[in-house]
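Subgroup meeting minutes
Present: P.N., E.W., G.H.
Scribe: E.W.

1. P.N. recapped why we're keeping a running log of single-chain structure predictions: easier to compare across weeks, and new members can see raw inputs and outputs side by side.
2. G.H. added today's entry (250 aa).
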Amino acid sequence: MGKGDREKSARDRIKEQQAADRKREQRRRIITYTTAGVVAVAALGAGILWNMNRSKSEEAGANLAPIAVQAAAGVTMGNAGVDKPVIDIYEDFQCPACKELERVSGSTFKNLAAEGKAKVVYHPITIFSEEPTRGNSIRAGAAARCVKDGKQWMAFHDTLFEKQPSETVEGFKIDQLVGWGKDVGITAADFEPCVTKQQYAGVQQSYSDKVNKEQNLTGTPTVKLNGVEMDNEVLFRPSELREAVLNAAK
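Output recorded in log:
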């Protein structure tokens, strides 16, 4: 083999070695990217699972804490001797966000009261000023004030949110409200005429005006823990909501 052939052969071997090195580097990168991708997917999955767990609603307990209904004020739920922490819930039966809060965290509020971990005070108010939402809210709120029994009030409260009409139509009609009351077991003789005559419509509006002014509300739902407004991020994550209430009791 001549000198030229030897030099050509050496160059070929260098090229082959370089090509082999490039292939090894490509394989290494593929493995690295694949591994990183698997880790990223796993981390994403763990994050999603963590968020789902934080947003998961609690199972409602078998029993409710005692409920005291005041037709001209709020409705208090709590065991005897439990004075704090106090959770004040300002809600409007026509408010879609209030309906969602009840769906997501309603059972947490009920459970905390039943466990003796908090006193919960519901304030059904009217925040709307235009029709048909204002009328819907007034009729529903006034009807709820016609319920004297605590457990029946809570059942009616939950039903009103479940049956919430669209904000663009007239809803919470008188015959519907009377029928839903009967569906949840309200048998008091004065319930139907109270709803039909909208006996507490004026009280619903005046109480709403009073609460809005005193509490400086900007919308609903608004929830205050020992007088301090809670962040919506916490309210709609039952596990964080529970943790915040338990911490407030320490």
